[in-house]
Design goal:
CATH architecture of the largest domain: Sandwich
CATH class of the largest domain: Mainly Beta
Mean pLDDT: 86
Oligomer: single chain
CATH topology of the largest domain: Immunoglobulin-like
Number of domains: 3
Order of helices and strands: HHEEEEEEEEEEEEEE
Radius of gyration: 28 Å
Low-confidence stretches: 139-159
Number of helices: 2
Largest sheet: 6 strands, antiparallel
Shape: elongated
Strand content: 15-25%
Distance between the termini: 36 Å
Number of strands: 14
Helix content: under 10%
Structural class: mainly beta
């Protein structure tokens, strides 16, 4: 098959303007014994539609023909427009969960989820298990939902990495660990503190890298094949250079959050 063999796109939903008496949704349960001759998803058009009227047959309903073509053309139209498909709780319950390999769009624009399990009923946008997150946006864009396994890729797909959710800064004498989901020791790790309450001339949303020249002698940052860890020594603090006075100062922990970025 060749790229030029692409069939014509579906430009509209079939029977879109048909009145209520001329189309109807196709039911998921058999209509045999309920509506004589009515179509359904399990039966299609029932046996009586194929029998002569003189032998007790019933002609197919035009409403059913319009109904099934409307349903099929509706999805064909969406696919023709390359529309995104998001998690659908009712649909996954009907089919028994998404299969391994399913790709769904995230509720966050530009991000996507890959199912790593068959019969997957969980919602990836609320942290459901069995999903691997990736993005077509730059790495600076956060992936929300299943943050523990959220990954990001360049548009060329050459580099993959991880962006954590905002993480509480631990008290002195603690080791804060965040799972990166890369399955290898990252080649590069950047840890920043993100301002949540304005301080030292920084506005909410500003970031300061604490492992790239900041005044934080009491901090150790390490990584392994599972986690990125941030160790704050006993009696230590997170120090930065103030934006307003250009002097070194220790941040108010509650005014900031860690954000970890890692690349493999």
């Amino acid at each position: 098959m060749r790229a030029i063999d692409l069939p014509g796109k579906v430009p509209s939903i079939f029977a879109k303007s048909a009145g209520a008496g001329y189309t109807r949704p196709i039911p998921l349960t058999s209509q045999i014994g309920i509506i004589d001759g009515a179509a359904s998803y399990p039966d299609g058009f029932p046996p009586k539609n194929f029998q002569a009227a003189i032998a007790g047959g019933v002609p197919p309903f035009g409403q059913d023909v319009n109904g099934i073509l409307s349903a099929l053309s509706g999805m064909a139209l969406w696919y023709s427009a390359s529309g995104p498909i998001l998690y659908d709780a009712a649909f996954q319950a009907t089919i028994g969960g998404y299969p391994q390999g399913t790709i769904l769009a995230s509720a966050t624009f530009g991000n996507f989820w890959l199912s790593t399990a068959d019969n997957n009923t969980t919602d990836p946008d609320t942290g459901g298990a069995g999903w691997f997150g990736f993005s077509l946006l730059p790495l600076s864009q956060n992936i929300t939902g299943n943050a523990a396994t959220a990954t990001t890729a360049t548009t060329a797909g050459a580099i993959s990495g991880f962006v954590s959710a905002e993480t509480t800064i631990g008290v002195a004498g603690t080791n804060t660990t965040v799972a990166h989901g890369l399955a290898v020791v990252p080649k590069s790790v950047v840890v920043v503190v993100r301002c949540k309450t304005a301080e030292f001339g920084f506005s909410v949303g500003d970031e300061v890298a604490i492992n790239m020249g900041s005044y934080s002698p009491g901090i150790g940052i390490y990584s392994d094949a599972v986690n990125v860890g941030i160790i704050l020594v006993s009696g230590g603090s997170v120090g930065i250079t103030r934006k307003d006075t250009f002097v070194e100062a220790s941040i108010t922990m509650s005014n900031w959050k860690y954000v970890i970025r890692a690349w493999k």
